[in-house]
Amino acid sequence: MAELSTVARPYAEALFGAARNDQATSLAGWSSLLADLAQVAANPEVGAVLSDPRLNQAQRVDLFLSLIKATLPQAARNFVELLVQNDRLLLLPEIASQFDVLKNRHEGVAVAEIASAFALSDEQVAELVAGLEKKFGRKLKPEVSLDASLIGGVRVTVGDQVLDTSVQAQLARMRDTLAA
């Protein structure tokens, strides 16, 4: 069976292309809208109900759209209908994730996943991000999380690049050096 990311990619790319040309809604608006749709689709109870074979496609669309709090533009309704027709509605979380990657790439922005052993103040995060932006040569959006296993320091992941200055990584390097 194909990976979810492989199946979701064409939908994310097609929606991104349409969203770029949408004069009424910005890319950030589409991203927010997709996040709302993905949150509903990720609910296991919603997935169970939408998988009920007694529901036809129109009922699935109506049921799903009734769970969305925001008013949807017609293009978003059409997209939901397409996903229901192709039995891909439950891929919305992956589609939303890939859409955000495309949006960030288009805007020249990358997500910096910062794992720290201790809570970082806003000032510390801003200082760290400023240094990382120089290192990586692009604008970064920080996503900070706590990971006590690091013992101290931080681990930063930007795309497929990892910068690990944690105590845990330093101890592992010392262990490897001593074992060699």
UniProtKB/TrEMBL annotation:
Query: Which UniProt keywords are listed?
Result: ATP synthesis, Cell membrane, CF(1), Hydrogen ion transport, Hydrolase, Ion transport, Membrane, Transport
* Native species: Orrella dioscoreae
Known function: F(1)F(0) ATP synthase produces ATP from ADP in the presence of a proton or sodium gradient. F-type ATPases consist of two structural domains, F(1) containing the extramembraneous catalytic core and F(0) containing the membrane proton channel, linked together by a central stalk and a peripheral stalk. During catalysis, ATP synthesis in the catalytic domain of F(1) is coupled via a rotary mechanism of the central stalk subunits to proton translocation.
Show the InterPro entries listed in the entry: ATP_synth_OSCP/delta_N_sf (IPR026015), ATPase_OSCP/dsu (IPR000711)
- Ranges in coiled-coil conformation: none
The family database entries (NCBIfam families) matched by this protein are listed as:
ATP_synt_delta, PRK05758.2-2
Protein name, per record: ATP synthase subunit delta
Q: Per UniProt, what is one GO molecular function of this protein?
A: hydrolase activity
KW Amino-acid biosynthesis (keyword) present: no
Q: Specify where it is mainly localized.
A: membrane
Q: Where does the record place it?
A: Cell membrane; Membrane
Q: Which PANTHER family match?
A: ATP SYNTHASE DELTA CHAIN
Please tell me whether the keyword Hydrolase is annotated for this protein: yes
Question: What HAMAP family would the database entry show?
Answer: ATP_synth_delta_bact (MF_01416)
Upper classification of the source organism reads: Bacteria, Pseudomonadati, Pseudomonadota, Betaproteobacteria, Burkholderiales
- Topology within the bilayer: Peripheral membrane protein
Q: Say which domain of life the source belongs to.
A: Bacteria
Q: Name one Pfam family in it.
A: OSCP
* Cellular component per GO, a single term: proton-transporting ATP synthase complex
Can you tell me which family this protein belongs to? Belongs to the ATPase delta chain family.
